Amino acid sequence: MERLGRAAKTWRAAVVLALTVMFCAGSLVGDDHWWPFSPWRMFSTSQAATGSVWSTGIEVQTADRPGEWVRAPLTPENVGLNRAEVEGRIPQIEADPSRLGTLARSHSELRPSSAEWTALRVVRRLIVVVDRRPTGEVRTEVLAEWRAS
């Protein structure tokens, strides 16, 4: 068995010290962008017992059901993206709703036998909670809307 030399011990101690400082700083002042040196906010905080919880989704109109908004799954199998990927781009989508046309085109390619989407909108549902229990009240807010031309 060979013993570590002074230089090997020194650089290992320096790495451990640097990682310790980064993890401590991340825990105290970091946010999601500091990951893996800080906790993800969604796992390190909790919602108030009374308030609202929001959920983002999409609703579509199809060629065979014009004028009727129907919820559609926001999944890679349905539109090629995860819900989190769409949620992360809400500011850009609100600024330019034509970006939603990409989801409709992706759906057509992924699900060619499904009815064509003629309109799509991103909605945020606020579910009202009192003492950690849903009240049944749901407020829906349309964030962006796209229609095929």
Account of the 3D structure:
It is a single chain. The chain has six helices and four strands; from the N terminus they run ααββααααββ. The protein has helices at about 5-30, 40-45, 75-80, 85, 90-95, 100-110, and strands at about 50-60, 65-70, 115-130, 135-145. The longest helix is centred in the first third of the chain and has 24 residues, at about 5-30.
Topology at a glance:
Layout: H1 6-29, H2 41-44, E1 51-62, E2 65-72, H3 76-79, H4 83-87, H5 90-95, H6 100-110, E3 117-130, E4 133-147
Antiparallel strand pairs: 1-2, 1-3, 3-4
How would you summarize this macromolecular structure in one to three sentences?
This protein has helices at residues 6-29, 41-44, 76-79, 83-87, 90-95, 100-110, and strands at 51-62, 65-72, 117-130, 133-147.
Poorly predicted runs: none
If you compute it from the alpha carbons, what radius of gyration comes out, rounded to the nearest whole angstrom? 23 Å
Global outline = elongated
Mean pLDDT: 89
- Helices, by number, come to 6
What is the chain-wise order of helices and strands? HHEEHHHHEE
Strand line-up across the major sheet:
2-1-3-4
What structural class is derived from the secondary structure elements?
Answer: alpha+beta
Mind describing the biggest β-sheet? 4 strands, antiparallel
Strand fraction equals 25-35%
Distance between the termini: 75 Å
Number of strands: 4
Helix content: 25-40%
How many discrete structural domains? 2
What distinguishing features does this structure have?
about 35% helix, four-stranded antiparallel sheet, alpha+beta, 4 strands, 6 helices, 2 domains, elongated, about 150 residues
